[in-house]
Every structure is written in structure tokens, then in C-alpha cells.
Amino acid sequence: MAPNQLLNQLIYQFEHQDMSQPEAVHTRRQKRILGIISTWLHCYWCDFYDISTRQLLAAFLERTNCCMFISLYETIESLASRDPPDEDQDALWGIKAEKYNGYESLLSIEKQPILLRRSHSSHIPVKDVGDEDDSERSKRYSAPPFGDIRGQRPIVRVLMSIPVKVMAEQLTLLEAKLFLKIQPRDFLKHTWISQKAKETPISASIHHFNYISGWIASMIVDQVKMEDRAFVYEYCLKIAVELEKLNNFNSLMAVMAGVNSAAILRLKETKQLVASKNKALVDQFSQLENLMSSESGVHQQDLLSLSEANKDHREDGKIHWQKFHLIGESILEVIQFQERPMHPIKSNPFVLCFIRNESKVLTEDC
Fold first, then answer.
1. pLDDT one-digit tens code per residue, 40-77
2. Cα gap 285→184, rounded to integer Å
3. Contact indicator for 141, 322 with CB cutoff of 8 Å
């Protein structure tokens, strides 16, 4: 459904009352619809990139008397009075607005800016999507950049100077920065967008996962001496344990993927040496593997399953709302995690640079 079609349906529901229902029911529905429009304008102003959608909203506001919902009405007015979006950021995967004859005819709309009366009693300052420059927008779709470490010491000596807990905290800080950049619509965008399209925050998180996995494996196999390999291998197992304590399960899975990569599985003597020295740690890591075996990418898998197993429309042509309701619930779970307070972690520039500075990181092809 195109944005102007969805807005048209919301306006129809707002302005038409089912006479078989009490007035109070219609009033509650009107308030809910205004809340939906307000949130839509606040979060996805780019949906109103097309002039027809903005004109449809302007016409609705001009003829609507919302004395009962003055606060919501003024918020919508303020949001709708912003400059038009510079671009439709969802044009690559979403449905573009189209002219059509609906409840509010769009065929006669001219290409002209929207002029709305601004409320003098309230104005909600909201950063426009179009206010982001290219550098700001790119930050949301990439892993946090860090400087280089030149003339670095051997990895073993560096790791000996970094407490395992500190390393796990910095990995968690990196993960949190990427996780908090993800917006609700990014999940759908990643599921439906073409692989050749530009990156999404979800893909940035996936790339970071693969990087950490390769980084863990490369640190281990790069050691020439068995004693050094055993030390780094044991250090990585300890990182996994600390990550579990921090509830950083995505980085934990990345570390596990690195430790269980093909290059590491061949190091039988190294693993035996660590097991002989610290069997308790090896057993603890094995328990974590069993715990995490079914937790990888749960939400993204749910979205893919819901999207592919259910059609958008029923056989009678009506929208399959249950499908989108379940998709919304899955996304809402992730958003609720974003809103939870995180344990404060102080940034450690040296450790962050060390994590991001490996010139040679193993991949699946290595």
C-alpha cells in the first residue's frame, strides 16, 4: 500500500462513523488515528516525499475540527509544516505514492508547496529527516570508525595488558552502538530490499558480526608458538564468558563462530593444551555453546519466515493483517530491548583501536 493510500484509509476511518456503535467508540478511534498520524510524521517524514501525500494531509487538517484533541492536532500541524523531505529513503524497497481516485481525489493536485497555518500555542521541534547530510546518514549504516594503531606490539603482549573484562566491555560498547542505530523499518528494509541496494543498519550489524568472528580466529592462528596460540585461545574463551555476563549475546555468538571456525578446529594440540590447563573454562564454554545453539538471528529468522510463508493479501483480495501484526510484534520485541537501560561502559580508545586495527582478518574463504 502506497503512503497516500494508507493516509487516505486513515482519513476515511476518522471521518466516517459506524452508526451502530456508540459515539464514545468513534471518539476513541479518532484519537487513536490522530496518534498514528502523529507518530508516522515524526518517525517517517520521508513517506511524505510525494506532493500528493502532503496535500492530502493538508486538506484533512484544513477541514477537520479537533477541539477534543487539540494537543494531538497541533502536534500534527507542527510536524506537517516542515520543509518537504529531500528524498524518499525507502524508494528502493517501498511502494511509491501513486495518483488515484479515492476517498480524497488526488488527480487534481498541482505541484506546489504545502502551506499550513502554524499553531501559535505550541510547536514541536523535530529534526527533519532531510536535515541529515550525507556524512550523518552514512554513520547510521556503518560500523563505528576508529583510528589505527601503528607500530603495534605482538598480540600476546597486547592481550596480556588488557583485562578480559575490559575487552568484553568494549566489544559490548561497539555492539550497542550498532544495535541502537537500528530503526523499526530497517528490519523490513533488510528483508525486502535488493541485495544490490545500499547498506542498512541491519547489514552493518551483520558485517560487524562477521568481522569479530574473523578477528577472533585470526588472532589465534597468527601465533607461531603453541604456547602463544594456547594463551590467545584461552583468552578468547574467557571473552565469551564475560560477554554472557554482560548479556551481549550477539558478540558472544560472533566469538563462538570464530573459535569454532574451520581454521581453529584443526588446532587440536592447542585446544588439548588449554583443556589440560583450564578444564573448568573449557567446560563453561561448552555450556555456553549449548545454551546459544538455538539463539542465532531469532528475530530476523522470524521476519523472513513470516514474510515468505504468508501472502500480503487473502484469497478474497483483502489485506492479510494478521501477517503484519505478527511482524510488528517481532520488531517490537527488539525495540523494547533498545529502550532498556544499559550498564554504563566507559570508552577505551586503545582497546577499540586494537579491535578495529587487524590488517589481516580471516574470512570463510581463507
1. 888 888 888 888 888 889 888 888 766 678 888 888 88
2. 33
3. no
pLDDT tier, 103 (very low <50, low <70, confident <90, very high otherwise): very low
Q: Which domains does the chain have, with CATH numbers?
A: 3-88 (no CATH), 155-360 (1.10.840.10)
Contact 3, 57 (CB under 8 A): no
Give the orientation angle of helix 349-356 with respect to helix 164-181, to 10 degrees. Answer: 70
List of residues 6+ apart from 317 with CB closer than 8 A: none
Please give the full DSSP string across 184-228, using - where no structure is assigned. HHHHHHHHHS-TTSPP-HHHHHHHHHHHHHHHHHHHHHT--SHHH
**Cell numbers at residue 5, please?**
493510500
Cα 227 from Cα 76, distance rounded (Å)? 65
Please state the separation of Cα 122 from the chain's center in Å: 32
CA distance 285 to 237: 6
Q: Are 199 and 348 in contact (CB under 8 A)?
A: no
Closest by CA to 248, choosing from 277, 209, 216, 219, is 209
| C-alpha cell read off for 88 | 524518499
Query: Rounded CA gap, 9 and 341, in Å?
Result: 37
Q: Which of the 8 DSSP states describes residue 119? A: P
Indicate whether this model's pTM tops 0.70. Answer: no
Closest of 91, 97, 99 to residue 192, by C-alpha = 91
Q: Are 237 and 194 in contact (CB under 8 A)?
A: no
Maximum pairwise Cα distance, the chain: 82
Dihedral pair phi/psi, residue 319, rounded to 5°: -65, 140
Residue reference for cell 574473523: 214
State the Cα–Cα distance between residues 26 and 92, nearest whole angstrom.
37
| Per-residue pLDDT tens digits for 149-164 | 433 458 899 999 999 9
